[in-house]
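hiii, so i know i said id send this last week but things got crazy w the move. better late than never?? heres the sequnce for the chain we talked about at the cafe, plus the structure i predicted for it. fair warning i was half asleep when i ran it
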Amino acid sequence: MYGIVLIAALIVTGGAIAVIGDRVGSKVGKKKLSLFGLRPRHTSVIVTIVTGVLITTLTFAVLAAASENVRVALFGMEKLNEEMRDTQSRLDAASERLAASEKEQREASAALKKSQGEVDALQKEQATLEARAQELAKGNSQLEAAKQELTAQNETLSSQNGALASENKELEERTEALREGLLIMREGDIVFRAGEVLASGVVRTGRSVEEIRSDLGALIQLANTSAADRLEGDREENYIWIYTPEYEEAAEKIAEGGVDTVVRIVAAGNLVRGEPVRTGLQLFANRTIYKEGEFILSRPFVLTSDQTAEAETIVMRFLQEVNAAAKEKGILPDPIRGSVGVMGSSQFYEAVNAVMAGRGPGVISAYAKEETDSLGPLRLRLQVTMENTAE
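okay and structure toks below
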């Protein structure tokens, strides 16, 4: 619409100038006016030429004033061409980068395919090792049966006369050799026992999956350091093998669970020196089990002698009961030892001495020394009361 109006304005303007020029030329011709001493005829021609020049000049002026594109075409064409060449250059560079990115993508796809092949190979190797473990278990059963048979023979031979003593001794040696062989086949040079905790910590929820993955990665690094120290190896090397889908699933579960989580990295089985340290993840909801100074348990006791062994037995049995109570309330025990707390020898013997000092009936009580959550460990403050006196 704007172009039509502009063209119409130019037509009207040009026509008006043409009419004015024609009339001026006619008047000049009729009146026989002369410019610069020229003949009237030549003067009329000059007026007509000037009129045409004015039409052209006014046309360009109106176009330039009304349209930026016309100004660019008249005065900025070289700059426009330069910008077009620069744009084409950038387009070519972008095309080259796109080609490079596509090449990198193809290389990344090839690497991913190679990694998947390696994972498949590891899974096949794991299946082979599991089959071998089943064969060893079967061999263990056979050796155990042989051991039991030899033990029965040994008991029978022991009831016979002294003439069979030498043969009995030989059978005992064979039995011992079989027992040692059985233990070697069962355990080998075991570095980590099944279920042993290599690293543990509390991972906070309410954050992105990436942040939780970062926390899990730090725990895995801590477990790798523990494995390196146990194996007396280089901490920079990677000893831990963990199933990646299990790791990803754990991160998503913690992010969606809405509760802080205790994460344990544990040995997947009895691991013999030289084998990869295969591990698994254990997840437990975390919460506060005991507040600082909270009462845990108390038990009465009676010291019947002045023997240290009896006092030690009283304290030890009480600590076992405290351990059981803490586990029942929710503190996670050590999978190998079954304990939930830590206590120095000095604190233990302070309690023993307090029991011995009473020389009679008393009560021993346990309190939480500090706030303790599900991860633990539980630190205790022991109190021994003899009749009406607190030790």
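btw The radius of gyration is 49 Å. thought thatd interest u
miss u guys!!
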